[in-house]
Structures are given as C-alpha cells and as structure tokens.
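Reviewers of the previous submission asked for a worked example of the structure-prediction workflow described in the proposal, so we include one complete record here. The input consisted solely of the amino acid sequence. No template or homolog information was supplied to the procedure at any stage.
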Amino acid sequence: MEECNLDRAISELDEYRLESVSTREESIEPPLSGGWIGVLAYTMLLVVVAFLAQRNALGVDWFERGRTEAGSMLAGEGWRAVTALTLHIDGSHLLGNLLFGSILGLLATQALGVGVTWLAIVVGGILGNVANAFLQPATHSSIGASTAVFAALGLLVALALVHSRHRRVGAWKLGPLVAGALLLAWTGIGGERTDVLAHVTGLISGLMIGVACGFVPRNQLERPLVQSVALGLTAGLIVVAWGLALG
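From that input alone, the workflow returned the following structure tokens.
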C-alpha cells in the first residue's frame, strides 16, 4: 500500500512539473511577422513624397498644400494633419525620421502586427498634429513625420507596460528603457526648427492608443484579415488626404 501511495505521489509531482513548464512556455508569445514589410512601405512612402515634393510634381507646391497650418486646419483643412507627416524639409530631416520610425515600428510590429501597428502610428501622428494645432497660434506651421514617430514611441512604451502585466516576456521588458533613450537622444539634438510641442502631443497620442491596443486579443491580431484591413485603412488615409490637398 505504501509503495502504491509513493508511486501515485511521484506521478502527481511529475504531472505538476510538466504543467508548470507548459504554463511558462505559453506565457512567451512569439513575435508577429511583417515588420520589415512595414518598414519598407514606410521608407518608400516618405522617399517618394520627398522626390515629388522637391520637384513640384503636377505643377503644385506640395509643401504649401500639405504642411500643417493651425488656422487652416481648424477652419476645415483637416487633411493637413495627415499630409504634413509625409513631408520633410531636407535630407537629414528625412533620414532621422526614417531611422527612428523604422526602429520603433519594427519593435511595435512584434506585438501588434504590421497593419495594426502602422495604422496606430499614423492615427497617433494625426491626433498629435490636431492637438498641436489647437495649442499653437493660428499662423503656426510645420512638416515632418516626427509627430508620428513620437506616437510610435508612446505606442511602444504603452505596449511594454501593458504586456508586462500579462507576464509576456522578451524585448518588452527593455521597451521603456530603449524608448526613453531614443527620446532623450533625439530631443537632445533638436535644433531651433524642432516643434517640441508636436513631439509631446504625438507621444501622448501614442500612449493612449498603445494602452487601447495592448488589450486587443492576441488571436485577433494574428488574423490576416485584421492586418490587411488595417493596412488598407492606413494607405487610404494617406491617399485620400493627398488627393484633397492636391485637388
């Protein structure tokens, strides 16, 4: 009888150990794919728009039509909140936003997928530009993807914090540290033309969107249809906005 009880106890301990190992393995979720596709699309968009804008393609001043103008935006030209994200004043401005935007977008894609990530980043940039317009004088204008890049930074920080509560491990534990270092580095080299308030509003917008995205069920983010629809909405926002601006 004692041998029987001993065998049963050993068997139950083995089952408990295997169940514990399985639970720990389930908490480690593999990163979602598509990160480099999003980076490539982001790069192509900014480079193409820069090429067309520098040459006044279609006989139109793209900077005049697409930059943010607080007064004009609040008077009804809302497309400027989108188009301004794709314009850059020179090569260094463009390269900086390409570098930081690609890094942050690539990291966020691991948690949200390519479509949802870039939709969240673009919407964060738009909301940041709109909020900035409310806070600035009517004559204030600006261009650049930096508002969206700071939204990506806020998105990444929020995801790191939300996911840490669900015991998800991996790069997310380092997310806030990496994001904070990037933020300090970038704002530290900003010049007189840096729109600091737009960076702040973009960051706050990204944080709010990131908190919401952090609670989207993983099985929904893994659905190709969800990612495809999100990508389509992202592209549609940009195309429609430029259509209104150039039309």
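The CA atoms of residues 11 and 224 lie 42 Å apart. We consider this example representative of the routine output the project will generate in years two and three.
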